[in-house]
Structures are given as C-alpha cells and as structure tokens.
TrEMBL record:
Superkingdom field: Bacteria
Domain ATPase dynein-related AAA: 44-199
Gene3D superfamilies (UniProt xref): P-loop containing nucleotide triphosphate hydrolases (3.40.50.300)
Pfam families in alphabetical order: AAA_5 (PF07728)
Protein name, per record: MoxR-like ATPase
Length: 309
C-alpha cells in the first residue's frame, strides 16, 4: 500500500493511522478504522468521551492533514439559530433603507430585494460549513453538543440529514459537497438516538501508559525522559482514584510543559504540590492529593519504575 499523501483522503486504515501520526496524534486501530469509514462513507463521526482525551484534536489534525478549512461550532447552553446558523446585518440594512429613502426610492420590493441579499447575510458556522466558497468541503467540528438543548439538537438533526438550510428570504442553501462532520460530546447528558443513528460512533478513552508517554515525547520534546515516565505513571494512577475530575491528556501535556519550564528532572512531593493546579482543576481534588495520599502515590510510582528498570 502506498504511503499517505497529505491532502488526500486516506485509502486504508493504515494510511489513516499514518495521517494521524503525521499530525502527532497517536490513535489506536479502532479509532483509525471508524475515522477511515466515516471518510469513505461520508457519514458524520460522533466522538464521545471524558473532557481532555483528544476528541477536538482529531478534527484539527484531520483538517490540517486534508488541507481543508476547519469550521468550529462551539456549543453552549442557549445556543440559538442566530448564533449557530445565520443572522441578518440589521445595522447595515437600516443604513441601506435610510439611503434609499434619502435618494427618493419608493419601490419597496426593490428595497426589500436589496437588503435581503447575500451581502447582508452573516454566515455563522453551520451556514459556513454548507457553503464553502472554493467548493471544497470543510471539516465541520460540532464541539460539545451535549451542552446545547434538545431543540437545537433537533434542528441539527435536520441539517445533517440533508446538508441544507432554508433562509426564508433567500431560499434553500444546499451544500455542493457535504462537509466532513466531527461531533464531540463529554456525555454530560444523553444525545438523542435519532442523531446518533446518522453517525458512526467511537468512544475516545484515556490512553494507555505507553501511548501517553509517546504523546509527551512528541508534544513536549524538552521534557526529561525520567520525568516523562514519572509524570505518565503518576497521572495513570491518579485516574484510578475517585476524583471529581480525572486529568485528561491535555492536562498531562500542560503538567509536563510546566515542569520542563521549571527545569525539573524528576518528581518530588514539593514539586507535585506546587504544580497540581496545572493537572487538577477542582480544589477538593487538589486538597486530597496534597495530603498523605499524594505522597503515597508518588512513592508507589517511583517504586514501580525502579522495579521496571
């Protein structure tokens, strides 16, 4: 099989793995398989998993590898059509009306036709994804869909079914080529089955120790090897505890970067305590690890690594 060529849709699972690795994203074969099928079948890919495990990064790496624009719809509670799809530039429309009146124009149909033309339409992410100007389908990232309400989810279901949006004043805008859709959710609520049925699904889990160590080597190349091993072993053990929020890969990278900036070559209780804010984001979790449990965890990590050597 030929090597992957940047800008081209991968033609095999191995090429998909190669494409992701070229973007410093280390994926398992199951993820590469579902991503390959999503691209070949032109179906949205629904990625579920804890925050910080790298779901959003997949869309970024994909857009870069395929040389496509990345259009991101960041979801939040109360997201509406005006923010997600389109709205009219009302100040510019009012100015146009005033200028027409000042010029003595009385043809209301002509004024209406002018102000509801494409040049006054503000395209938000959904409409941008459906009407890419160069005709090349973008990568459309719908990030943290679970933060929206069910009404918006129902609207999105219609968009993903036909890849079109109706603007009453202009008519139906249909994608010349359907965008490559990546949907992520942190599972703060269940997304309706009707939307999931239109997608291919994959659960993105925390990486295993060997994979996370390789991620540190790639993302924080200045990090000492001993320190990298200790960081990964410590984080892996943290995730076995009953914390309010387990650290994700993003936090592991941040911690490794912070410790490298501090010129540390290994973990010690004081360093761990001083830098926990880059790894854990809730005070109850930090207070717990700052106590005796954190020191015990560090002793176990160092003992485990000595035994491995």
């Amino acid at each position: 099989m030929a090597a992957y060529r940047k800008g081209a849709i991968p033609q095999s699972i191995d090429q998909t793995l190669e494409m992701l690795a070229a973007g410093n994203y280390l994926a398992g074969r199951s993820l590469a398989t579902v991503l390959f099928l999503s691209l070949k079948m032109k179906r949205p890919l629904f990625l579920e998993g804890e925050a910080g495990v790298g779901k959003t990064e997949i869309a970024k790496v994909l857009a870069h590898a395929l040389d496509r624009p990345l259009i991101r719809l960041q979801c939040y509670e109360g997201l509406d059509i005006a923010s997600a799809v389109y709205e009219w530039n009302y100040p510019a429309q009012m100015l146009e009306i005033r200028l027409a009146e000042a010029a003595g124009t009385t043809d209301r149909d002509r004024i209406e036709s002018d102000i509801f033309s494409d040049r006054y339409l503000i395209r938000r992410p959904v409409l941008q994804a459906l009407s890419s100007p160069d005709g090349r389908a973008p990568v459309f990232l719908i990030d943290e869909l679970d933060r929206t309400d069910e009404a918006f989810e129902a609207f999105l279901l219609e968009v993903l079914s036909d890849f079109q949006v109706t603007v009453p004043e202009l008519g139906t805008i249909r994608a010349a080529e359907p965008p490559i859709v990546i949907i992520t959710t942190n599972r703060t609520r269940e997304v309706h089955d009707a939307l999931k049925r239109r997608c291919l699904y994959h659960w993105v889990d925390y990486p295993k120790a060997e994979q996370e160590l390789e991620i540190i080597r790639r993302k924080v190349p200045g990090c000492n090897e001993t320190l990298s091993q200790q960081i990964v072993a410590y984080v892996q053990r943290l995730r076995t505890l009953d914390l309010f929020k387990n650290p994700g890969v993003a936090e592991t990278i941040d911690w490794a970067t912070a410790l490298t900036e501090l010129d540390r070559t290994g973990l010690d209780p004081e360093t761990v305590s001083d830098t926990l804010g880059t790894l854990l984001k809730y005070q109850d979790d930090i207070a717990r690890i700052e106590g005796g449990e954190g020191r015990k965890l560090l002793d176990e990590v160092k003992s485990e690594l000595r035994t491995a050597v």
